[in-house]
Amino acid sequence: MNPNYLDFEQPIAELEDKIESLRMVGHNNADIDIHKEIETLRNKSDALTKKIYSSLKPWDIVKIARHPQRPYSVDYIPLIFEEFDELHGDRLFADDPAIICGLAWLERQAVAVIAQEKGRNTNDKIKRNFGMVRPEGYRKALRIMEMAERFHLPIITLIDTPGAYPGIDSEERGISEAIACNLARMSNLSVPIICIVIGEGSSGGAIGIGVGDRLYMLQYTTYFVISPEGCANIIWKSAEKAPLAAEAMGVTPDVLIRLGIVDDVIEEPLGGAHRDLPLTASRIKKHLVKNLNLLRNIEISQLLQERYQRLMSYGNPV
Amino acid sequence: MSWLDNIIPSIMRGKDTTHRNVVPEGLWIRCGDCENSLYRPELEKALNVCPKCGVHMRISARRRLDIFLDPPSRTELATDIGPIDALKFKDTKRYRERLSAAQKKTGETEALIVIAGQLKGIPVVAAAFDFNFLGGSMGYAVGERFTQGARHALEQKMPFIVFSATGGARMQEALISLMQMAKTASMIERMKVAGVPYISVLTDPVYGGVSASLASLGDINIAEPGVRAGFSGPNIIRETIRVELPEGFQRGEFLLSHGAIDMIVRRSEMREMIARLLSKMLNISLKSP
Fold this sequence. Notes:
The structure holds two protein chains of two kinds. Chain A contains 14 helices and eight strands. Chain A is an alpha/beta fold.
């Protein structure tokens, strides 16, 4: 099994392997023309990818959202923003590397960026605590968001976390309070707030930086109140039933748009964001620039009124 | 076991039912904690606090509000708000069936009850979670009832007191439940801005999405003795970090010493204490009883 491809993508992996070996043959034998053969296989591989990706199940999307090669915040930030200056620390206890905060330019508009980061290699994952945020992370985020409010800077949040950190220290320092405070304050910060789920939006850990005027999701991302594994454990007493739980809970953008929680989906390249990072980043950027311009044209009092209406509408019978 | 399921902790999976389990039938009740047999009328007179060992047994939302508010002039709010099954959620059972069973079991239509009334003559809005209704979990109706209670408090400039007893957000309403966290927190922010007192009382247990929203945001946070409260349930933490949890972890004294709550108050003194606090917050003197 090719680890760069998910289980349901293995037929694609086989084709890609063939293409790669043909390339090697062509490279070593200048007199053999394999271009045509490669092109045929390339088309076949694309067609197969299209076919597989047109009938993904929610559980498949959970896997793509957690793909080991999936772009993280540190990959997107330099491609979406210019001159990102990272700011550290909650001024109370520590700096939490599971949340990256800073100021940057989005085209010619200065913005505050709040982004969850899972970490790529082992050391980085440990440093970032796999994207599991501690109270300090939420408090750092709030400190930067309140500063953004003072300087009238819009806030962009990138959501990607397996959840707030379930640890003793996390509880001791009030993880509940930290998340709750962010929810309360984000509801009335007098600057535009745009939130984008770029990978995994897990529960309280995600919504802790997820209250705003617009909520977007990349195409192959998930947002849930409890992980499908956790849900399956409670109901079926087995994490193996996670695919069923993912189905039942409606964790993907299409369902969440229908429920009126998510505003729009940002399309990913064929085969997922990790197959073409620059293209994904440019689509996010375009989406952000366009919608931020729209939001910036709304009077702040009107914006806050609309944010309030938005919060009040969640779950209302239609 | 995944460590991701912070929102619905171990308590709801029924593994950790050490005490509070009291056989409800008959004239005699055995205390789940000290195992003494208790005479039911006597126990009820003691507000379901064991006269032998002092353990605070779990009580229904309606009884909670009944023993908290002054008897006259009570109006229940948001009674027309009931559960909505937007996802047509189904696992081994339909969510609708689970709802019907919970309604039958508790005699309530949802897990939160909101009543406008008086506390020692102070007009207040008070709400209580019913843990027997799907683990006191918060879905659309709980969030909406809370919101309507808060709105009433804001309009009438009345303090809002909420007794939580919950496993967290309601899984069967998925992300709609999660969004109730933001919705309720935003109402508390409005009360804060308007100077309307909001008091959160934690009663055993308070976890997950309710802990990380409305239960942690009181101007004053109070806990009943014996409470267990936190974001992640103890089993999830144990499974994630694979370390034994310290004695008294997430209990009242732990919450107090780590600065999460202002005080621990016995059930029998709850009325008195909250009235005293409110009278100062509102700078009004209480009519002597």
